[in-house]
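Pinned message: reference record for SDR family NAD(P)-dependent oxidoreductase
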Amino acid sequence: MMTDLSNKNILITGGTGTFGEALLREILQQNIHPKHLFILSRDEYKQHQLKQSLPPHQQSLVTFLLGDVRDYNTLMIHFRQMDLVIHAAALKRIDSGEEQPDAFVETNTVGTTHVLNAALMQHVEQVVTISTDKAVYPTTLYGATKLCAERITIQKNKPAGLRASVIRLGNLLGSRGSIVTELIESNQTDIKLTHPDMTRFTMTTSESARYTLQVLGEARGGEIFVPKMPVYRLVDLVSVLLPDAALQYTQPRFTEKLHETLLSHEEARYTFERAQDYVICMKEDLQQWYQQQPTHAVPASFEYHSNQHNFLSRDELRLLINPFI
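Predicted structure (tokens):
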């Protein structure tokens, strides 16, 4: 079943975050014509800033709702008459998650349960949960909470009712708290890295928003969608952003990975490759449907991690980063 996004009430949790804002702007710019857009977030000031940044003809298409995914009753109120929910609300700073695990579990895991349960109760047609490569082989509390959020989303999918899917992304270039923004703001002359070969997946926020809209139109429910993403080496990123900085190598933190993984070896047996992405299907009926589509099953030994691929050159990185400098 394909989703026509026109004439739909669409709600974005975490809608004032980097991804949520990018998705809102992409919807407003494309010829989608939703009935109405709703932004749900906790921060009144960020809502005001985002609203004021929109031209008047777009402001009338968006309603800003104050609320917290930890509050189930609030979600029950706001999800009335909603057709689609994009669940992007999350706490994501790695260090904060290790220091304040309760808050991360309540927001990222329990909050996702609340979103899915409220969507079921209010007869929402579709929910897409935004996840992260940190959920694969998690070494951080943040990653563990997002793994739980993925499993909760897939478990709540109901073939005859709510269609629930996951989009698993890598690092969003220029997002708040990302290494790009932190390096730019620090302007340090001495940069500490833990390994010269460290790699990361990356994607611009506008690319992630366009991909999400594509998935909203294609998802049957029960899938984890993994876009094919460029990869960079952190040492190249530092060289582009701070060419005069001196690099110092330190011991890695126990939560830190040398490379990230977007699709695990264990998931390969359930995975189909398309031109632009991979689709993980854990249910047999879903696998049978994708077998009839223009896809092919990946090898059983397949794994999609960031040290397998051609890295972005420094010139390519510079082109990507220029809008944020």
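Pinned by admin. Summary line: Residues 101-121 form the longest helix (21 residues).
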